[in-house]
Amino acid sequence: MRLRLLAAFCIVAATGWWLGSFRTEVFHRGAAHMYSVDFKGARWIQASTGAPRSYFHFDLPLQAVPDSATLWVDSNQWYDAYVDGRRIDSDASDVKAAVPAKAHGVDLTRWLVAGQNTVALDVSNANTGTASMRARLVLVTNGKETDYSTSSPGWRATSNSALVKPRGSLHLPQFFSVKYDASAWPAAVPSPTVRTAIVASVPEQVMEQPFNAEAISTPNPTREMAASVIVDLPGQPTDGWIRVASSGPYGLFLNGDLLTYRSQAAFTGKGVPAEVLNLFNLGQFFHPGVNVLAFHVTASPVATLYVDGTIQTTAGSVTINSGQNWSAVPYPFGNALTAPSSTDKAAFIGTTSIVWPQGLAKRVIGVNKVDTPPSVVYLDRFATLGGTLALWVLAAGLVGLIAGIPFRRALLTDAVGHLPGMAAIAATEQFARMRDVLAPFPHVPGVLLALLGTVFAGKVVSGLVVTGVTERVALWVMAGWQRLRRLRMPEMPQMPQIAHRVGGMLMRWEVAAVGIISLICGGAALYRIGYEPLWQDELASLLAAQGVRSHLLPSLPSGLLYFKGELYSALLAVVGAITGDTATPLRIPSALWYVATILAFGLLLLPMVIKRRSLLLVATTVLFATAPMELLWSRDVRMYQQAQFFAILFVVFFAKALRLPRTRTIAAAAVTMLLMYLSHEETFIFLPAIPVVFLVAMRLRWVRDWRWWVFGGGAFALIGVQYLLTAKTHPPFFGFDHSDKPYVTYDAHNFYWYISKVYFPTATRAGGLALVSSFAVIAGVTGVVRRNFMRLYISAFLWIPVLALSTVFSPKIARYVFVTIPLLFVLAALGAVDVIGALRSVLSAIGSGIRERRAVIRLVAVATVPGFGWLGLSLTGGAGDYGLAFANATGATVAYAHTDYSGVGSYMRAHEKPGDLFVTLAPPDDPAYYVGRVPNMTIATGRDKLLFLMEKDGSAVDTNFGVPAILTVGDLQKVIENHRRVWIMTDQGSYLTSVAPAITNLIKDQFDVVAETATAALYFRGD
Question: Which of 213, 365, 210, 219 has its CA nearest to residue 303?
């Protein structure tokens, strides 16, 4: 009984602690707000020849440098902002991470000069849309505000890359330089409105406000000082921003608690100061009444500080400005960080323009960079914990008196009432972690109130059930549930036996539910399945399929035999021959294999392990089918979904063959193992598990059974033949990947990587398998304790492949574990059952009555609903992870995940001439597909891509087409000298920057950029 009471106490305490943490996030967490931005009617503009990538240019003559200059930008989709030749801001990372659109405030003050200035933007749309934007430039001088916006005359825009990046642009003014002449650019034209309302993570006033305080130090200059001031607030703080600059690293303290430490650069030997003005949202860290704001500054030669800001409260606003009302104490400080000195007053050093003559750049410090004061955190947590425990004892005593049960048993049943609320808190916190959820939601008072209501409702329901108030309702619900479980369609008369059995199976509700799940998920996968451009790996599969059509062997144009997924290559060859080699029909098989995998998982694998638990079967199928890592390959021309489908079939048939050896099950296991391997050879990680499981389960019973020798031995022999063909036909490669090791080699260092990065990743905004893997481990441990065959069997086919992958494969690539995902989810379902059963057992008192047991069973069942949400949300980082259909339905930001060469390919097809040389600085199969012809040469894209070059006749050639590889800048120079017209197609990122700078500079100096999209560029040299 003591252990049960301890468990109950832990549940109640955890609920109170988590509620207290949530309360802290709601009321005492800074920088968690979004603020509306007024663009003052600024129109959306674009280039006259609307394109996915456009450039915008605005000349800004100034008679004097303004006190403050802020550019507010709202673009479709990402932008790079430049001022007077400098790139100063970008939101590309937001778009690529599918973060909801926000306006960005860009501080221009420190970059502007008296005279001519240039404001320029490079805007890209990676969602087949037109690059457009709206902007508002706010200048403040001597308290007077001047606005320029995209509605103002003077904005020019072009999508003609030749105007922006002419040949030799390394030695010419860039389009964002003051010296650049944009008179040849057309005027920007109005664009269709993308949105009207928009928010930003910082208020307009905080960005636009000029400096209005003094820089301070100690009366006698020192390298280390403590500066502090009393902030007396008349009411409860609601919001408030503080702007801070210092001459070196500083710690920011509030009421004696360190909130953050900024290790910015200090003075150098030449006296060049730091140039950053940090913006903090600290309002909610303050409390009504007297607060002490303090800074510990360390700098050489002089510790200097600037602070300004405003705290909003329910009774008015309070302004904070550094000045002589501050205390400034040299080291040693004494208690100067907690109580300002009445004698050591700060000394005025000068204005910011004197102390920092080159200006200060504003930088917003995010919520994750500021710590909530421990005193506030623990006050919230312990206060909520104490209240929760007190209410637990009080409610248990009341229920014990009414129901006539011992107090200890009442404590147990009341603790059960906390489970739904505790699970709801966990699910809400997981939701808050998603990258496309805009703060402060869900950390708002309304959600906190709903969570408190959930906890209280659970306690009330527990008490009502124990006291017998809900018996009639419970009987009615239970009867309805039993009728639902027994639901059958009318049987058809005179149905043959096999058809009768199949029809009976299909008429069960859980089977119908699995079918509906597969259809919905399949429909989502098929939605605009041709949207994403074909990428390198997809085109490698396509080349192999074309080789099958031409030679009946998966041979690439280079002559390399592509013994990788031969069965998939053959299927792709047939599909392509019927429909053509375009994205949509080639991807449809992957979506269909995804549907088949869901059906096999829900109707074959799960029923073999989970029996008589229809609801659990359906819930697990939903969780598996919608997991982002399962959806990953459902829309690509790749073999992973096919291999996973056959892996499920093999695990099912092999288990049946081990438990009841029959010729048909042994043959089915052997055939599906072979089909799995021939779908993708990376499924070889299953092979080491087979003999281990086989010998443990069968011992020596198989020795005299010819069926194992014929079917099993035959399948392994065919796999061995395929491996020998692969080893013998592959030519020597020119290098390895980034591991600098052969792909297949002994390396025991990767196990920790797969465990820590794939199965148990640390908490990130991208989601992960940590919770699912934890439940899977619980199921495996339980299987060992109980000696349960199916649990041990599934665990072996999960963890032995991971061990094999970690020791014989040198690369660290998460997709190689894809075939283990179904087994992981099966074990997770079993682990969840174990946890639910343990909760029921622990929280049911010995000798408890039927009402108490009923309360435990029902409330644990209710808690599984938010628990399921918690588990599902832990797998994802945002709406975009669920595919294009869901992203579009929820309005999530959508952008291509892969480089789009179609636009630049179309330009080259329209302008090339016979005899032109076509060179790629990218995987050559991508540009080749969109140009419609094989490149003549390829530039090797970085050391870790040498694996895709092979040696042929003493030279390095590409593995796909066998075209010569350019390895050095000298090789490229010779190509340029010997060919009059040369095209080079590349991306706008990793490939272009992966080569030696000399190669990049030679291309930019000798070639014109004639076409580009958000992610690809086409260079040309010739007449």
Answer: 219
Per-residue pLDDT, 636: 94
Residues 6+ away with beta carbon under 8 Å from 60: 112, 116, 117, 118, 119, 137, 148
Phi (first) and psi of residue 675, to 5 degrees: -65, -40
pLDDT of residue 734: 58
Give the sign of the dihedral formed by CA 246, CA 247, CA 249, CA 251.
Answer: negative
Residue 457 has pLDDT above 90, yes or no: yes
One DSSP character per residue, 549-573 reads HHHSS-B-TTS-B--SSHHHHHHHH
d(CA 631, CA 148): 46
Q: Which residues contact 116 (CB under 8 A, 6 or more apart)?
A: 59, 60, 61, 178
Is the confidence at residue 335, as pLDDT, over 80?
yes
And the tokens for 598? 């869901």
CB-side neighbour CA atoms (13 Å) of 1: 10
Number of H helices, E strands in the chain: 34, 33
Q: Are 822 and 601 in contact (CB under 8 A)?
A: yes
What tokens does 148 get? 């320029």
pLDDT tens profile 645-685: 999 999 999 999 999 999 999 999 999 999 999 999 889 88
Distance (Å) of CA 722 to CA 313, 547, 668, 719: 74, 17, 20, 5
Ordered DSSP codes for 872-935: HHTT-SSGGGG-HHHHHHHT-----SS---HHHHHHHHHH--TT-EEEEES-THHHHHHHTS--
CA nearest neighbour of 648 among 686, 702, 605: 605
Average pLDDT for residues 883-904, to the nearest whole number? Answer: 89
| Residue 278 near residue 365 (C-beta atoms within 8 A) | yes
Per DSSP, 2 falls in state H
- Please say if the pLDDT value at position 834 is more than 50: yes
Consecutive H or E run containing 697: helix 689-698
